[in-house]
Amino acid sequence: MSDILAVAEHRRGDLRDVSFELVTAGRELADAADGDLHVAVIGGDVDGFADELNREGVDMVHTVSEGEEFNHDIYTQSVEALADEIDPELLVLPNTVNGLDYAPAVANALSLPLVTDAIDVEYGDEPAVTREMYGSKVETVVEVDADRVALTIRPGEWPPAEGTGDAEISQFDVDIDESAVRSTVTGYQEVGGGDVDITDADVLVSVGRGIEEEENIALVEALADTLGATLSSSRPIVDNGWLPKNRQVGQSGKVVTPDVYIAIGISGAVQHVAGMKGADTIVAINTDASAPIYDLADYGVADDLFDVVPALIEEFGGEPPAL
Amino acid sequence: MKVLVAVAEVADVEDEFEIDGLAIDEQYLNYDLNEWDDYAVEAGVQLQEAGEDVEVVSVTIGPERADETIRMALAKGVDRSIRVWDENLEGTEYLDSETKADVLAAVVEDEQPDLVLTGVQSDDTAFGATGVALAEEVGFEWAAVVNDLEYEPGNETASVHRELEGGVEEFTDVELPAVLTIQTGINEPRYASLRGIRQAQSKEIAPKTLDELGLDASVTDSDVSLTQLYEPETESDATLFEGSPDEEADQLADLLRDEGVEA
Ligand SMILES: Cc1cc2nc3c(=O)[nH]c(=O)nc-3n(C[C@H](O)[C@H](O)[C@H](O)COP(=O)(O)OP(=O)(O)OC[C@H]3O[C@@H](n4cnc5c(N)ncnc54)[C@H](O)[C@@H]3O)c2cc1C
Ligand SMILES: Nc1ncnc2c1ncn2[C@@H]1O[C@H](COP(=O)(O)O)[C@@H](O)[C@H]1O
């Protein structure tokens, strides 16, 4: 048998979207490998989760009733035990913050080669995984010459599985070694509140590292003012302390869906795109015409922002600041 | 106490580049300290400043070229450095996270640090896996994607925030010894001072081979091999405005007005 084991992810009572994408990816691989798709869910309301995960194509759901929320020590031990039992050819995990908090440990403990952040997987004689390098500038294919492999898949690359399956749901008991649980989750906090809610804006002027210096933020501020738009940014701008956290668009910031999103000096890294791909009209101002932001943009100007933005401010009757 | 910081030198690709076989042609690559590791170095140096007797050691797997990057870490306050390289590593086509973790594990065995700091990911390969794989390999506890660290040197537990998706942070207590993978924004990495740069010249960068670390050359054997590297077909169907900046701005303004944007 060449079975596939996918492990679902949930947080604070809800399965995360990537769980259903894992089912789709897992089913594709199970078909290619001519095996069964096993899905595991660990912690929280496992019975409720199991019902939800029982989508078309799932052969078996394993529930592990250990804890409420994610803890990597529990996950690592549980997935190891499940893998020992099921002996899957492919272990498919999410390339999320929590996925990356246990996948490398599980792979290492089981001596499985690990390929992270897969955006495509071909299953021939051996799995061939497509992943990006150099900030999406190139794609690579890596082949894994092993009988057993662990993969993490990028969220948003596979469609969510639909329908209702006829999976067998079975409880899986794990003998947790408590002495190996050496981390404790003590709470959660939402960050990035404050005066401005960028998720409300119709038009966002968004600034990235191309702005170079803190003083130059005045330029995009002036554009936002002139257009009556709201100012947002990519992560490095917030990391540098040039704008507050509530302005950050992306995976670890806010997900925005404005009518118009003007990305200025932003490359379009996957974690940024996660936060703005739903915008209606995307405009990019970026000197690098091959930057990944242009894969999404509807319109663009591949020129220097320090020339284009002042001219644009003037077009709308504003006055560019002296930098 | 001792803090070990894993510092990678990464390559940044120029806007225009060419591919040579399974790699980007060297002339289009510029090497620099990995962005995430700059924050890890700062976190280490802050612990050194906060405590008595805290030594901060950095470790890099990389060729001699990396010494320039390592000097930057030394100039920012790292006490001494280790650089692992030899002909086996040189000949390794695809240095995956498993191999890196195995090599770093040997350095951990040697140095016996209380805390290991890595970055969340390397900017070029973006495996995002080396730190956690290393922790498992050496039997340390760990936490991935740490954007806040509270730790008094000498204590048995560190309190961290893990930055989850969507602006949610998880608070976690982690028992030492531990590996923490550090996220950007956790602190404000300092610039090297002139004095720091001068001092860095006399600090040690100890070269080590796999053999010297007690590792067999087979540690570089990997089941994962790179078989293709290419520029992805552009999915772009963006309309690009052209001309002088004024002409570009003019067309862009028309478009924005069409989209309902009013001054
Ligand atoms: C776990 C994790 C979570 C993350 N979460 C987020 C997140 O929520 N949001 C986020 O944005 N990132 C996030 N990141 C970081 C992300 O990977 C990128 O590092 C970041 O998005 C890059 O920001 P940038 O595009 O501004 O900078 P860069 O990638 O450095 O791009 C700068 C761009 O500016 C262009 N440019 C330079 N000069 C000019 C000029 N004069 N005129 C015009 N263009 C110019 C360049 O061509 C380049 O494309 C996360 C990373 C990780 C690992
Ligand atoms: N060649 C290297 N030498 C030293 N540390 C490294 C090296 N490559 C990766 N690391 C460490 O592992 C982290 C994650 O890298 P990666 O798993 O390759 O994305 C980096 O931020 C570094 O701290």
UniProtKB/TrEMBL annotation, chain A:
<dbReference type="Pfam" id="PF00766">
    <property type="entry name" value="ETF_alpha"/>
</dbReference>
<feature type="domain" description="Electron transfer flavoprotein alpha/beta-subunit N-terminal">
    <location>
        <begin position="4"/>
        <end position="185"/>
    </location>
</feature>
<dbReference type="GO" id="GO:0009055">
    <property type="term" value="F:electron transfer activity"/>
</dbReference>
<dbReference type="GO" id="GO:0033539">
    <property type="term" value="P:fatty acid beta-oxidation using acyl-CoA dehydrogenase"/>
</dbReference>
<dbReference type="Pfam" id="PF01012">
    <property type="entry name" value="ETF"/>
</dbReference>
<dbReference type="InterPro" id="IPR001308">
    <property type="entry name" value="ETF_a/FixB"/>
</dbReference>
<dbReference type="InterPro" id="IPR014730">
    <property type="entry name" value="ETF_a/b_N"/>
</dbReference>
<dbReference type="InterPro" id="IPR033947">
    <property type="entry name" value="ETF_alpha_N"/>
</dbReference>
<comment type="similarity">
    <text>Belongs to the ETF alpha-subunit/FixB family.</text>
</comment>
<dbReference type="GO" id="GO:0050660">
    <property type="term" value="F:flavin adenine dinucleotide binding"/>
</dbReference>
<protein>
    <submittedName>
        <fullName>Electron transfer flavoprotein subunit alpha</fullName>
    </submittedName>
</protein>
<dbReference type="InterPro" id="IPR014731">
    <property type="entry name" value="ETF_asu_C"/>
</dbReference>
<dbReference type="InterPro" id="IPR029035">
    <property type="entry name" value="DHS-like_NAD/FAD-binding_dom"/>
</dbReference>
<dbReference type="InterPro" id="IPR014729">
    <property type="entry name" value="Rossmann-like_a/b/a_fold"/>
</dbReference>
Automatic annotation (TrEMBL), chain B:
<dbReference type="InterPro" id="IPR014730">
    <property type="entry name" value="ETF_a/b_N"/>
</dbReference>
<dbReference type="Pfam" id="PF01012">
    <property type="entry name" value="ETF"/>
</dbReference>
<dbReference type="InterPro" id="IPR033948">
    <property type="entry name" value="ETF_beta_N"/>
</dbReference>
<keyword id="KW-0249">Electron transport</keyword>
<dbReference type="GO" id="GO:0009055">
    <property type="term" value="F:electron transfer activity"/>
</dbReference>
<comment type="similarity">
    <text>Belongs to the ETF beta-subunit/FixA family.</text>
</comment>
<feature type="domain" description="Electron transfer flavoprotein alpha/beta-subunit N-terminal">
    <location>
        <begin position="21"/>
        <end position="217"/>
    </location>
</feature>
<keyword id="KW-0813">Transport</keyword>
<protein>
    <submittedName>
        <fullName>Electron transfer flavoprotein, subunit beta</fullName>
    </submittedName>
</protein>
<dbReference type="InterPro" id="IPR012255">
    <property type="entry name" value="ETF_b"/>
</dbReference>
<dbReference type="InterPro" id="IPR014729">
    <property type="entry name" value="Rossmann-like_a/b/a_fold"/>
</dbReference>
